[in-house]
Design brief:
By secondary structure, the chain is an alpha/beta fold. Helix content is 25%, strand content 10%. Helix 2 packs across helix 8 and helix 6 crosses helix 7.
Length: 374
């Protein structure tokens, strides 16, 4: 039985999702309207406690341990010499930043997600220090999958240890918004995911600067796991859906995108967004989707991409089958289309910190030249 199942297990794990995807065309709209959803939920224990920070369980914890390191006081306090947004009245420059992280949750992404989580503390600290007048943040994580495994009881019929970790066998309905491509992730589930409710302090599908332990909570959300049912991945379609303000994803993410904030998108994937069976639309459509979401102001957008560098001189990545990443010409075309506001890094780099540090100056320049509407 085990030998037979071993032959078919890859097919089982790649079975089509048990539900549909209600996404709609969003590339040409500038609307950001949505509806307010219900209150946030507590974690699995029902007490709203973020957990104990055990580095092995993806728990946000108290910030004293885990991959995120010690809790960082990046938003509070009255550090000498730091100017806050309230100290300067009027004029140009941004006071707010909306960060969107698009994270591939396919089976080869565990080490990349770990790398991303490890680099986040220094990135957000550098942002807080460098953008001294922009201390109002929204941070949302989305993945590249429109469905969740726990709605598929077929997997739960196999009594193999670890097969159904986090899948909540017997649950027949997904949680609110978790079956929608582009909706903010609040409760990652499945193989190698956090498998707890991250319990955002905002009560919405994104974190804010008011999060008591932003580093730990980001760790929880960004561990989206490796159990995607969609193949190939659709990172660009998820990205556009997330900010469009239209359809189910727009309703789920209500309040995330703000007209008077700059938008910083970071996407991380080890495969190209394939033509024909990947994301809907073209490279230009994806670009226009972001610009429309920002009411036509492309100068308010920064795009950071971590993907394969096999098409570059002296690549870091090997082949995807050897734990590397495939070359991604469409994603490179997308990054390049943003000029100096498009920043590329190799997903195979051993440490993403230098990549994010190099992006801080680009974000700072974009923030300095931003003219809020009105």
């Amino acid at each position: 039985m085990v030998e037979t199942l071993g032959k078919f297990l890859p097919l089982i794990l790649l079975m089509p999702a048990c539900g549909g995807d209600d996404t709609i065309s969003v590339y040409s709209s500038g609307s950001n309207s949505g509806v307010t959803l219900g209150d946030s939920t507590t974690n699995a224990s029902g007490d709203g406690d973020a957990g104990d920070g055990d580095p092995g369980d993806g728990d946000p914890g108290d910030g004293d341990d885990g991959p995120g390191g010690p809790k960082l006081d990046v938003f509070g306090g009255d550090e000498e010499g730091r100017t806050t947004a309230g100290d300067t009245a009027g004029g140009g420059g941004c006071k707010k930043v909306d960060f969107l992280f698009v994270i591939d949750n396919s089976g080869s992404m565990l080490d990349k997600q770990t790398n991303l989580v490890a680099s986040f503390p220094s990135f957000i600290n550098s942002i807080s220090t460098t953008l001294d007048e922009a201390q109002d943040y929204h941070i949302m994580v989305i993945d590249t999958d429109a469905w969740v495994h726990e709605s598929c009881p077929f997997l739960c019929a196999f009594p193999l240890p670890g097969l159904c970790v986090g899948y909540e066998c017997g649950v027949t309905q997904p949680e609110e918004c978790e079956d929608i491509l582009g909706a903010g992730v609040t409760h990652p589930k499945g193989a190698n995911a956090s498998n707890i409710d991250c319990n955002f302090a905002s009560g919405k599908r994104f974190m804010t600067d008011q999060e008591p332990n932003l580093v730990g909570t980001f760790h929880c959300a960004a561990r989206v796991g490796t159990g995607a049912t969609t193949d190939p991945e659709k990172p660009m379609e998820a990205m556009v859906n997330a900010v469009s303000g239209l359809g189910p994803a727009g309703a789920c993410n209500e309040g995330f995108l703000r007209d008077d904030a700059i938008l910083v998108v970071t996407f991380i994937t080890d495969e190209d967004d394939d033509l024909g069976d990947g994301s809907a639309g073209s490279v230009q459509d994806w670009r226009q989707g972001l610009i429309s979401a920002k009411n036509g102001d492309e100068s308010s957008i920064v795009v950071l991409g971590l993907f394969g560098d096999g098409d570059q001189p002296n690549p870091v990545c090997g082949s995807l089958n050897n734990g590397g990443a495939e070359s991604s010409p469409r994603l490179r075309q997308f990054i390049d289309s943003w000029g100096p506001r498009g920043v590329f890094g190799s997903i195979c780099a051993p440490d993403y910190t230098p990549f994010f540090q190099s992006a801080v100056d680009t974000i700072d320049t974009t923030c300095d030249t931003f003219m809020p509407p009105g």
